[in-house]
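Title: [Solved] Pyruvate kinase C-terminal domain-containing protein 3D structure

Original question kept below for reference.
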Amino acid sequence: MAKICVEVESTLDYGDMFKRIMHHSPVPMSPSESLASSVVRTANSARAALILVLTRGGTTAKLVAKYRPVTPILSVVVHKLTTNTFDWSCSDESPARHSLIFRGLIPILIAASARASRAETTEDAIEFTLQCANTKGLCVNGDSVVVLHRVVTASIIKILTMK
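Solution (posted by the thread starter after getting help):
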């Protein structure tokens, strides 16, 4: 079955598929939809080896998968750590498990952090994920990686080069 899937995937014209999906997308697009299509367009233009999406619930990664990029998408599910001084709780891993049913999504679960700075936690999650991807052979030194994540209320698209 895997051989059949690989063979069929190799015959698809992903550029044409992206154009057709964009043609049928609603205008005006929602901010999330616009970000997802922009990430795929950026990955195609940069010939990125990987798309990395940091998410809590998995919705953004699923939207990116909707646009059928040729590159694999790492859906990095970051646990949400909450506390009220005495009681600590952490969100569950169901968003990571649920992303397994979507084409092109590879879930990675990142443990919650109690650090003071969200920027530090985000950079740590990106670095950890890139190391995992390199170990698994999804990308090698010199490859471009497109990253989508949030910083407070802003969404950021980055293009990183593997080192």
